[in-house]
Design brief:
It is a single chain. By secondary structure, this protein is α/β, with parallel strands linked by helices. It has two domains: 238 residues, Glycogen Phosphorylase B (Rossmann fold), CATH 3.40.50; 178 residues, Glycogen Phosphorylase B (Rossmann fold, 3-Layer(aba) Sandwich). The protein contains 20 helices and 13 strands. The strands form two sheets. It has a seven-stranded parallel sheet, with helices on both faces. The radius of gyration is 23 Å and the shape is globular. Its EC number is 2.4.1.-. Pathway: Pigment biosynthesis; anthocyanin biosynthesis.
């Protein structure tokens, strides 16, 4: 920093926010969108943003996205990486993500603390991924205000908060498959629709499971006095009843989503490009050209996300069900989708699975797709999804109804909200049978296409209204920015007082 810049910094301190996500695709993507929103909408004086990524994910981000050039346009923005020695390529698939959270708590904590001490200019506010409790612990220890960003759906956060009461009431653990449809009654606001099978995937364990205990502890720490402020990627018209419950315990709750649409809305009219990618995979844009050749609303988009791992036999069941439905589909099959022990050979679906199929009616990508663009394409009329939170919101904004096949974590409850509460699609959790796949695809794409379509279009309208000026998410972001500036100012004053006391 130059001497002149240092003098200006002292005269008019600029808040310096450090954003630290769990290093997996969905968390990195949504928190990068938040980083861009803060960089873009900081107002007079701005907000300086540092985005902290793992070495492994940052290399992939720079290789496969435009993030580096895009963020170069924002004064004061910087990427920082953290080298924690963890095998990210192994720990970011399937349920190993839970192991990643545990390992980061052990190995990354001291590295993070040292990094905070070395930052220049000093960090005045940390926005940490809500699933990584050590971020809060370190921030509190060094005296930096902390805001938690829960990248999952608010319903999952709310369930996590009430898990002690669920366990105490004997509603967990689940007593076998025959117990899965029993109602859960101890989560305020969800008593009428929440079943055992809709609880987050990590609840299907014994009541003393260590992973479950860590998730409960991390969530409950949010409500310590004073409760940590929360950022949520949702909007009031979507999650209003649960948000009202959450705000009783967490008054500082900022619902500023859908983040991807919010960013797009704020970028309109600026010189910054409105298209952006935060992908950790190479995106195959050829699928958009193929979609251009398909009739409107005729294609079912199939993508199970960046973490889901399935068995080869499950892949075959989906394939047979999809092709038997006679509907057009676009299926993204990323590397690692099939479990390592049964990994597919070569770069395509085995030829025996596609014999007799008219290939102009289907397209398979072995790689990754520009999902927001795909879902927004006129040819797409449905989405077979793992019900990850980002995918759910992207589908809602695009007005595309869903068939939900959740894998783990918040995806189980997301699929229940989509199907039972909002009536925006069908829930296929815990089932992988070609006949069920065929039936549900035809129900979504043919038999109830208009019914689901009307509801999806209305929800899309509300989502887009929420991020426009005067909308609930727009106003909540403005409030978040004001509070970040206030927190940063108070943190500087407190440090100044401590320094003066030490001198005296």
């Amino acid at each position: 920093m130059t001497e002149a810049a240092a003098i200006m910094e002292q005269a008019s301190p600029i808040p310096h926010v450090l954003i630290f996500p769990l290093p997996v695709q969905g968390h990195v993507s949504s928190m990068l969108k938040l980083a861009e929103l803060l960089s873009l909408a900081g107002g007079e004086g701005g907000i300086r943003v540092t985005f902290l990524n793992s070495d492994y994910n940052h290399k992939r981000l720079i290789q496969f996205s435009d993030a580096e050039s895009r963020f170069r346009k924002y004064p004061g923005f910087q990427f920082k990486t953290i080298d924690d020695g963890l095998p990210m390529d192994q720990l970011t698939k399937g349920e190993k993500v839970l192991d990643l959270m545990r390992e980061m708590g052990l190995k990354t904590r001291p590295i993070f603390k040292d990094l905070l001490a070395q930052m220049d200019p000093p960090v005045t506010c940390v926005i940490g991924d809500g699933v990584l409790g050590f971020i809060r612990d370190v921030s509190v220890e060094v005296g930096i205000p902390i805001i938690r960003f829960r990248t999952v759906g608010v319903s999952c956060f709310w369930i996590n908060f009430w898990l002690p009461e669920i366990i105490e009431a004997g509603e967990l653990p689940v007593q076998g498959n025959g117990d899965m449809d029993r109602m859960i009654t101890k989560v305020p606001g969800m008593e009428s629709f929440l079943r055992c099978r809709d609880l987050p995937g990590y609840c299907r364990v014994s009541a003393d499971d260590q992973v479950l205990a860590r998730i409960v502890r991390t969530t409950r720490e949010s409500s310590s006095s004073p409760p940590s402020p929360l950022i949520l990627n949702t909007f009031d018209d979507f999650d209003g009843p649960i948000l009202a419950q959450v705000r009783h315990l967490f008054p500082k709750t900022y619902a500023i989503g859908p983040l991807h649409e919010h960013l797009k809305s704020r970028l309109q009219g600026t010189t910054t490009t409105s298209s952006s990618s935060n992908s950790l995979w190479k995106e195959e844009a050829s699928c958009l050209t193929w979609l251009d050749t398909q009739p409107p609303g005729s294609v079912l988009y199939v993508n199970f996300g960046s973490i889901t791992v399935m068995r080869r036999e499950q892949l075959v069941e989906f394939w047979e069900g999809l092709t038997s439905s006679k509907n057009r589909f676009l299926w993204v099959i990323r590397p690692g989708l099939v479990s390592h022990e049964e990994e597919l050979d070569g770069d395509e679906i085995p030829e025996e699975l596609v014999e007799g199929i008219e290939k102009e009616n289907l397209k398979v990508l072995v790689g990754w797709a520009p999902q927001e663009a795909v879902l927004s394409h006129d040819a797409v009329g449905g989405f077979l999804t793992h019900s990850g939170w980002n995918s759910t919101l992207e589908s809602i904004v695009a007005g595309v109804p869903m068939i939900c096949w959740p894998f783990f974590a918040d995806q189980q409850v997301n699929s229940r909200i989509v199907s039972e509460v909002l009536k925006l699609g069908l829930d296929m959790k815990d089932v992988c049978d070609r006949r069920v796949v065929e039936r549900m695809v035809n129900e979504l794409m043919v038999e109830k296409k208009e019914e689901f379509g009307r509801k999806a279009v209305e929800m899309a309208r509300m989502a887009k209204e929420s991020v426009k000026e005067g909308g609930s998410s727009y106003e909540n972001l403005e409030l978040l920015i004001e509070d970040i500036k206030l927190m940063s100012s108070q943190a500087r004053e407190l440090k100044g007082c401590k320094s003066s006391n030490n001198i005296s």
